[in-house]
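Milestone 3.1: sequence recovery, worked example.
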């Protein structure tokens, strides 16, 4: 497991020069100084954690606005745009309805009174975009309150997870070093 984390960190560090080189040879080369100041392509712990948090928060935005929203939030927070864009992919046609149900329940916890979950009742018995839109409208205010709450919760968890996963190999190296020092101190005595 630790070898995989270390390999992932090495791969991410090797990815940064390739992204910068590709960006320097693209039509967007004139934007490179602004992008560098914003750390949008840095594959270090803090920008990666901010990018993942932005992607998890913006992943709940409906439709094709998830990645542009993530890019804007990453530019504002100075997070990694690649990590942010990849993090938005946790929402897809299979996961969006369960996520919206969780968001509805979070919103219902905050709002006064009892908020019953509307039943899914598509016309014709099948799934359609219109039926999904109608169901989302029936979820109403609890959904509007719960989506930001769920987004902030997922963003905080993703931010913390990146920091923990980034530090695990360093902590293990420290433990191995201490054990080695103790072993050497025991043989000298």
């Amino acid at each position: 497991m630790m070898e995989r984390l270390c390999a992932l960190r090495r791969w991410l560090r090797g990815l940064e020069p390739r992204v910068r080189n590709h960006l320097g040879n693209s039509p967007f080369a004139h934007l490179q100084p602004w992008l560098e100041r914003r750390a949008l392509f840095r594959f270090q712990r803090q920008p990666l954690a901010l990018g993942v948090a932005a992607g998890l928060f913006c992943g709940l935005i409906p439709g094709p606005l998830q990645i542009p929203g993530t890019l804007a939030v990453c530019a504002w927070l100075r997070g990694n745009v690649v990590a942010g864009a990849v993090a938005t992919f946790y929402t897809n046609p299979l996961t969006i309805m369960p996520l919206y149900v969780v968001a509805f329940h979070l919103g219902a916890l905050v709002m006064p009174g009892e908020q019953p979950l509307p039943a899914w009742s598509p016309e014709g018995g099948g799934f359609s975009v219109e039926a999904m839109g109608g169901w989302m409208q029936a979820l109403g205010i609890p959904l509007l309150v719960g989506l930001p709450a769920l987004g902030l919760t997922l963003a905080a968890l993703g931010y913390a997870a990146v920091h923990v996963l980034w530090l695990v190999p360093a902590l293990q190296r420290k433990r191995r070093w201490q054990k080695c020092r103790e072993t050497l101190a025991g043989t000298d005595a």
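Helices lie at 2-24, 32-38, 45-58, 66-77, 81-87, 96-110, 129-188. The first helix runs from residue 2 to 24.
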